[in-house]
Amino acid sequence: MFDTANGVESMGDVTPVEATVPATHDADGRPTRLLSGSQLIRISLYWLGISAVWSGILDIVNGRIQFAGLAAKGSEGLGALQIALVGTVIAIAVQPTVGSISDYTMTRWGRRKPYIFIGATLDVVFLYGIATANGLFAIGAFVTLLQFSSNFAQGPFQGYVPDLVPARQVGTASGLLGLFSALGNLCGYGAAALAVRQSGSDPNAFFYGTMAIGAIEFVAMMGVFIGVHEGTRVKPRHGRSWWSVAREAWGTDILRERSFLWLVSSRLFILTAASLYPILSTFYLAQVFGLNAKQTGDTKIVLLGIVAVCLTVAVIPAARLSDRLGRKRIIYWSCAIGATGLALGAFAPVLPVAMLGAALFALSAGSFLAVDWALMSDIVPKASTGRYMGISNVATASAGTVALALGGAAVMDTVNRWLGYGAGPRAALLLGVGFYIIGALLLKPVVERRREPDAALIGAA
Length: 461
Fold this sequence. Notes:
The protein is an all-alpha fold. 73% of the residues lie in helices and 1% in strands. The protein has helices at 37-44, 46-67, 76-103, 113-132, 136-157, 160-164, 170-198, 205-227, 242-248, 258-288, 293-325, 327-347, 351-379, 385-419, 423-443, 455-458, and strands spanning 2-3, 8-9.
């Protein structure tokens, strides 16, 4: 039976809305019972699929732009931006809205799972559309649809760590989240690198690469759907309509959360800097070092090996150190290392120096991924985690497009025209150094603390 007053489905004797924080939860509304390692892994697993899709599809599209003639020479950055632009607006609108709705939803599967399953299933459909489309307009249309479906799933999914993980395990959970996100990036870039490498001899290479990342995401999603128990806690609607709940995602009360706003601003710049290297890597290798499709693919595979080692080395130690030294301090170190890596890439005279820069960049990315979500999870209101995590991911959704707009279309294409083909990607990496510095400065006002008890949840009737 469905409870129209609170928007929850009755499940026999289970009471989905609790009037007070139970003994199994702390004053912040977090569970106090420690989770097993396998439970923590299942909570984070879907990040592998999400990261594989977006790292892979953007790299595959860039490979088609560079080597399949989808954009004119010297306008590669603009072509990539045209494909991504509208989808980014969709992502910004959908993720916080659906995340907020999921805070109030309860079904027999939980409040997050229906959105995750529907979104991931549609992702596979739209990836097939991208794989079979020809021309910038058709590819851009399917990328826009993919942004809708992917963010339909991501907004609710991001509530899992604040929902289910006790405070003592937030650092570990964030580290696992960062690890799976990193592994997903490696899977996505690996599929794209193989597709680029084979594209010269196999006209179906890009199709196979695109569908491979879809399969990775769907398998990861099913691991979460089957393996995660969400519990029965839900935020009450008090008779409000679902339209009212959706509009709540954009309520002005969020302006009171000063630390949250500073953190979102900071991560926008940091993630934009962190997006420049991977998003522009195909253009960088082909234009700066004059590599063809096979050579670019082979080099990217070598780079993936280097990045895999560095990410694995960085993620878990950074998460544990953040519990002892503080989240912000680790992020500052991450920014410094990342800026150094981008600077090396920008000035690299030969490929080995560029690879050293990529190694430092990977250490930075692993450290940031391990700690960023722990800090965000610490400061967001616990009863509205879907909403706040969705809004926080506005930075994630925007970062790639900002990187393409400023680093690709504005800087890379312009400098290529002014100073010669190949100078543009170097200039774009230098722009990333500045973004890291701005991101670190915006992090300073963030108050690193745990939330006080959330009245909306504790007082639920």
